[in-house]
Amino acid sequence: MKILSFDLELNQDPSGAKIIEVGACVGDTITGEVLESYSGFVNPQQTLIELIIQLTSITQEQVDNAGTVEEAYLGMVELARRHDCMRMPLVWGMGDGAALRKELPSTMPWEFGRRELDVKALFQSHQIAKEGKVQAGLS
Fold first, then answer.
1. I need a labelling partner for 22 at 20 to 30 A (CA). Which of 97, 102, 135, 138 fits?
2. Residue 9 dihedral angles phi and psi, to the nearest 5°
3. Concatenated DSSP letters of 52-76
């Protein structure tokens, strides 16, 4: 069984947070192998704030030369189709699916079902159960 995992990077501009990257990978749930990765930069039509540049290493030049959120989304859809992934993706922190759907045109179909599995919450729950550290950054 193959599963898609995706994560968004957003520019936290005071005028409103906008997606600046759609990152995804496909994993094999049996072998644990990462089969393919994808990164689609998005031009948010905003100046990146310095904190986001430092946190993500994404530059203003990268987003200025990037395509649309629709193009980044379609790249992720093609990745999932190529590997025949299950329709429920993994995310690191709840809400990435809703944030992506919010920025897509209402006419663009959502390809990933109604649910996403928040593996950050699962990891934190596991840590609580074993009385470990609850803080859960990607590192």
1. 135
2. -115, 135
3. HHHHH---HHHHHT-B-HHHHHHHH
Q: Which of 59, 35, 33 is nearest to 47 (CA)?
A: 59
Q: If we measure between CA atoms, which residue out of 30, 32, 29, 10 comes closest to residue 20?
A: 10
Amino acid 62: pLDDT? 98
d(CA 10, CA 48): 9
The first and second tokens of residue 83, run together, are: 């590997």
Beta strands per DSSP E along 12-139: 18-28, 34-41, 90-91, 117-118
pLDDT mean values, one per 10 residues, the chain (139 residues): 96 88 97 97 96 95 98 98 96 90 95 91 88 66
How far apart, in whole angstroms, are the C-alpha atoms of residue 74 and residue 85?
A: 15
Asked whether the beta carbons of 70 and 76 are under 8 A apart, the reply is no
